[in-house]
Amino acid sequence: MRWGVLATGGIAARFTAEVQELPDAEVVAVASRSDASAKEFAARFGIPRAYGEWAALVADPEVDVVYVATPHSAHRAAAGLALAAGKPVLCEKPFTLNVREAAELVSLARERGVFLMEAMWTYCNPVIRRLVELVRDGAIGEIQTVQADFGFPGPADPGHRLRDPALGGGALLDLGVYPVSFAQLLLGEPDRVQADALLSSEGVDLNTGILLGWDSGATALLSCSLTGGTPVTATVTGTTGRIELPSGFFHAEHFVLHRNGAEPGTEPEEFTADGGLYGLQYEAAEVMRCLRAGETESPLVPLDGTLAVMRTLDAVRDRIGVRFPADD
After folding, report:
1. Is 93 a catalytic residue?
2. DSSP classification of residue 87
3. How far, in Å, CA of 151 to CA of 232, rounded?
4. Which residue, among 44, 106, 32, has the nearest Cα to 70 in the 3D structure?
5. In whole angstroms, what is the distance from residue 56 CA to residue 61 CA?
6. CB burial readout 258-285, b (16+ within 10 A) else e
7. What angle do CA 192, 153, 162 make, to 5 degrees?
8. Residues with Cβ within 8 Å of residue 146, at least 6 apart in sequence
9. Integer Cα distance of 279 and 282 in angstroms
């Protein structure tokens, strides 16, 4: 499967390096808005073709699928360009700046019958997939709470993209998308959304707490921050047990299952993945599986689920008073 990578930043570099290690994939082209940047990236990774414009990459007949790794403020334009050219797309998260943009991409993909998937690698991770299976099989009873956090000391420079509303800055879209996506993977779209946040002078969120509620009685307590390092852990608690994901839950390597009423001294059950893949390879492998099977949407990362997460992110921004120019 021949990949074209659209953008040359850090996540594009990591994706390229990991995909090139797959036996059934290769990166054959890269594009940037800067010809020099594209050529430097191509030289670094041994990519045969470099383009200084996006349109040239999506028109390349040797490219089977496009990975969009631009800043999320450009996801709508970049993914839309590829879809309009008939190219399957894997688009980084957050999928877009708001649900309107996301719905436009989903509609375009479905109208054209072209594959589209959000690059939510967490959903493709075998540890998370096993956790979901256990929860659905009743291993911890009915879910009562989901707790998850993601925070690190962010940039102080007002000119950084994470401080720029025009670029979708703030903790929520960069970091909060993971806790929200994790909660909704288990419980679906919430019935109620509450949130509070510390905003920067530029008007983006720096430290955000989110409370989601479902009519079942389940709740999710989530947080994201650019003001300090948090544990970056997650816990799912049910009526008969709980499952704990250690630091780095969004790219989990194992979890621990605690069952209520276990015999004294009984060790909690642990699950560790051993599938020969790692990191971003899981999402790339899922895209390639779908394309070879003729599927236009992934059952692991369904587009309706992506839209539901974007609705929640929009609702959180509404509660905390964060607006982007793209919202107008």
Report:
1. yes
2. -
3. 7
4. 32
5. 10
6. bbeeeeeeeeeeebebeeebeebbbbbb
7. 70
8. 182, 183, 186, 187, 218, 219, 220, 221, 222, 234, 235, 236, 237
9. 6
Q: What are the phi and psi torsion angles at 310 (to 5°)?
A: -65, -35
Per-residue pLDDT of the chain (328 residues), as tens digits, is 999 999 999 999 999 999 999 999 999 999 999 999 999 999 999 999 999 999 999 999 999 999 999 999 999 999 999 999 999 999 999 999 999 999 999 999 999 999 999 999 999 999 999 999 999 999 999 999 999 999 999 887 888 999 999 999 999 999 999 999 999 999 999 999 999 999 999 999 999 999 999 999 999 999 999 999 999 999 999 999 999 999 999 999 999 999 998 776 666 888 887 777 889 999 999 999 999 999 999 999 999 999 999 999 999 999 999 999 999 8
Determine contact, residues 310/95, Cβ cutoff 8 Å.
yes
Give the bridge partners for 27, in sequence order.
3
The owner of tokens 């699950």 is 271
- Structure letter (DSSP) for residue 63: -
CA gyration radius, the chain: 20
Give residues with Cβ within 8 angstroms of 187, minimum separation 6: 143, 146, 212, 214, 216, 218, 220
How far is residue 162 from each of residues 47, 50, 149, 175, 201, measured CA to CA in Å? 30, 28, 18, 11, 12
CA 149 vs CA 103, 171, 229, 289: distances in Å: 27, 11, 10, 31
pLDDT value at residue 264: 66
Q: Which of 76, 93, 311, 317 is catalytic?
A: 93
Listing from the earlier edge strand, what are the strands of the sheet with 143-151? 192-199, 205-213, 219-225, 143-151, 234-238, 241-245, 254-259, 269-272
Tracing tokens 């999710």 back to the chain, one arrives at: 220
Residue-level pLDDT at 69 = 97
Task: Give the global pTM.
Answer: 0.95
Structure tokens belonging to residue 23: 């036996």
Q: What are phi and psi of 223, to 5 degrees?
A: -150, 155
